[in-house]
Amino acid sequence: MKILFLHGWNSAVGGVKPTYLKDHGHEVINPALPHEDMAEAVRIAQAEFDKHQPQVVIGSSRGGAVAMNIYSGDAMLVLLCPAWKKYGTAKTVKPDTVILHSRADDQGVMRSRVRKAQVSLFEPLPGEVPALYEMGLPVVETGDKWHVNVHQKVPLNRDRDNVKPAYLQAVRVAVLNTAHDLLTSDDEVTAGWVKLAGADARCSGDAIKHLIRLRFGEMVAAPDPSDTEAMKRFQSQGGVIVAGLSKGEWANVKRAGAVLPAGKICPTPKPYSDDPDAPLVDIVPPDQWTEGIKSIAEYARFLGRELMGIEVVVSVVRTTNNFAAAYGSGRLDLNLVRLGHKWFQQGATEDVDRLLIHEFGHEYSGDHLSEDYHEALCRLGASLKRLALEKPDELRRFIRE
Fold it and tell me: What's the average model confidence in pLDDT over 52-69?
């Protein structure tokens, strides 16, 4: 079919619509029309019509007004949002003219409206660039995964060769919310349009969960600065700490509960509750200590001075909390419920040394899995060996025969 296509104001020859028609087998005459001289534009259009005798004349925006002002004989006239109120003198069209126009008020002022619409997705053929369509007519190439056809008029710019960014974003979010399960690879879920839609507040919980699982896997956790050890433990178990999301994506992840903090999944054991209303721990007064408790407490203070240069304050507590000992800021708490009296009666054994070195390591790091903690344990162990060689008699007084 031979088509005369008349472009809009400030549009160029060879735009999306005439190119689409040409690519689908039509012979398209697409003359360059001057932007400021309407009379000259009409003259050029009429000359092209007379020369080529097309079967269809299509005019877009100002080109629609140009088409209304030429003699088109028996050719079908298709007007895309014709700007007839602003350009030319023609105010009527011939019978059977096809007019595609966005809704407007009596003054022709475009108004935004929100309406439900059916949207169809089509897989692009090899070599095609996915585009947005209005009722089957191409509007703009998007480069997204699918051709998207909106089954109603869409809000276009004055030359009908593009849509408003906000509208395209709304379409992308709707497509993602409905068809996210059709995205099956990491490349697809990290595509630009998907990330933009996934960061939108209108993104559904199911959609953001699917994106996270496909991108990072099933075993995922959010970073947890309050429990860095939990993050390392989670990773050591094969989990993935989610990173690289935008602010909007993180907001949707949190709203949907798609990813929990590492500290919620595998929290690092804490000796005491963070609840300020929790009951106070039962501290055993020093005058109730057995000789075995007194000896171990003195041994701990001795090692604190020799190995760390710190005067350690030793307390004995009774609590059902799941810890044998707890150290922090120069204070060592020994849990009588967990250790039992027999542990204290054995004197300075390897079991006692193991526990004290473990706790004293927290003078340098609270993270069991950190390099600083590992280095601290090595340093404390080496220092204990040196102490045994240099002051054997002082150590021997804590050892029971």
Answer: 93
> What is the model's pLDDT at position 229?
83
Backbone angles phi, psi at 85, to 5 degrees: -70, -20
Q: Find, among 69, 88, 67, the residue nearest to 78 by Cα.
A: 67
Torsion sign over Cα 381, 385, 391, 395: positive
- All domains of the chain, ordered by start, with CATH? 2-100 (3.40.50.1820), 282-396 (3.30.2010.10)
254: Cβ–Cβ under 8 A, 6 or more apart, which residues?
none
In sequence order, what are the residues at sequence separation of 6 or more whose Cβ sits closer than 8 angstroms to the Cβ of residue 187? none
Give the residue-averaged pLDDT of 259-275: 78
DSSP string, 220-288: EEB--GGGHHHHHHHHHTT-EE-----HHHHHHHHHHT-S-BHHHHSPPP-SS-S-TTSPPPEEPPGGG
Radius of gyration of the chain (CA): 39
Q: How far apart are CA 141 and CA 163, in angstroms?
A: 10
Element (H, E) at 147: strand 147-150
Q: What integer best gives the mean pLDDT of the chain? A: 89
